[in-house]
Write a structure and sequence with these properties.
Layout (H helix, E strand, L loop, with lengths): L13 E5 L3 H12 L3 E3 L7 E4 L4 H13 L3 E4 L12 E5 L2 E5 L6 H14 L4 H10 L1 H7 L3 H12 L14 H6 L8 E5 L10 H9 L2 E4 L5 H4 L21 E5 L3
Parallel strand pairs: 1-2, 1-3, 3-4, 7-9, 8-9
Antiparallel strand pairs: 5-6
Length: 251
Amino acid sequence: MHSLPVFLRLAGRPIILMGDGDTADAKRRLLERAGALVVGEETDAALAIVAIEDEGAATRAVARLRARGILVNAVDRPALCDFTLPAIVDRDPVLVAVGTGGASAGLAKALRQRIEALLPAGLGTLANHLHAARDRIRARFPEAGERRHAIDAALDPGGPLDPLGTPAEISDWLASPTSRTPSTVTIILRSDDPDDLTLREARWLAQADVVHIDSDVPAAVRNRIRADARQPEGTTVETAAKLTVILKTVV
């Protein structure tokens, strides 16, 4: 992973923007949409965007800003960037960001357009309803692991809160019986291509609390595992875990 994706709250914060023309204007509109205060080079700020066309002038501007400890995005110059700006799908408060580390803005844009077509306009409403129901969800599922698995199951394809379907009312979901995820599942890989995982297997890896992995499982498949899942040595199943996956080597 070449970069750590983060979402920055910029409302009311000064961000330096240097440059003129269409590119600089587009960056200004993006910053203002996020609520940032667009300022000049001499202002104190933590971030800066350099949209200067001339190579030498841009390089010198980046050097001056970095000397002040400012993180810089140099438009169309990935080698000079401390951070990059992704293509964005906005379903406020849901944001989906697609980045290529500056390798290809065109590819990021194409992927954004595909994702844009998939995500319904009401996705933000579902997010707000889930936020408003946090106390009721905690009361219904007081144990953290059980709560996470219940939410995962509800948001699964075909689930009562499927974000790509027609989600039920939160109250109806909380009042309904919950289905249990198997406590232990085994995935036997059919190839070293993660795209060969079934949808159910991919969900298991994304939801698992503990994953036992054969040593020969390729990194591309390991990357599909939930980031904070435990990966202990051996295959002893932990009874406290809500979902344990045993991931076996390619056959």
